[in-house]
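INTERNAL TRANSFER SHEET
From: sequence group
To: structure group
Subject: Sugar kinase

Please process the attached sequence and return the structure record in the designated field. Keep the field labels unchanged so the import script can parse them.
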Amino acid sequence: MKPVVTLGETMALLSTPPWGRVTAGAALPAGIGGAESNVAIGLARLGVESCWLSRVGDDALGDFVTREIRAEGVRVLAERDPDAPTGLMLKEMRAGKPRRVRYYRRGSAFSKMSTVDESVITSAGLVHLTGITPALGRGPAKLVEHVMELAHGASVPVSFDVNHRATLWDAEEAAPVLARLVAAADIVFAGPEEAALVLSREPGGDDFAAGEELARALAATGPRTVVVKLGALGALSLCNGEIHRGRASAVDVVDPVGAGDAFVAGYLSGVVAGASVPESVRLGNAAGAAVCAMPGDWEGFPVKEELGPVTGEGEVLR
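Return from structure group:
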């Protein structure tokens, strides 16, 4: 099995105390966070070879980020920038739960990334990208499109998670870029609001019926598979004209950050293993639920044995 290759920025992550206020002498636990490395870690835990391409500063935070990802069994190919810093984000807590995430990534090392080892892309089994990367600068935006072209030229499938971050760019700027990338991808992941943004329409409902309508509209633009993530309700996948629904299991949510990335990792682990679409949806839902039940962006990612056997709960509509 060839590796799944991801490309994106991972930042050092600091969390405020549970009560939210930072005071003199307060401890701010350190971790890491980045959608693409989250997916790579999730895949590695599920037994799929993965590789993360990025750029970090030649600093202590860059050491920390790369060491943590490598320790999870992911192949790390991250350039070191002697002049620009590693990105940073702050998770603000209230009553012990995340309330807001703030980014400090303008001018970061990754925002200056514009090249990649082309052989890593052309020899991959699948390439996974997100809509976060093109929001980080002209170089990363061009690089995403270049990586897609390389992958397609080598017949390597591309998955793309819309992952719109409103704090990085506004909807008016993001929509046409995301729409172009969605149309060029083979597999697309989106939430209802993200799908509506790409389609330049007002957000509608977040149930299965509304999700199916959005999936069919997105598929009409180019991708062969569209997955709409519906949060606590579950998810659906449109593949080869068939809708496959999967309901999520009830879970006490501790920290929802990273659940979407866990879903993608679970779903893609099924894809690369040749699993059925209902099973891929089930794996995605199970992985997402596991992350919601624990604090942290990726720390709660399950291993393969924890996802359980096929349950037959996926619903196929023909």
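Handover comment: Residues 204 and 305 are 37 Å apart (CA to CA). The mean pLDDT is 91.
Transfer complete.
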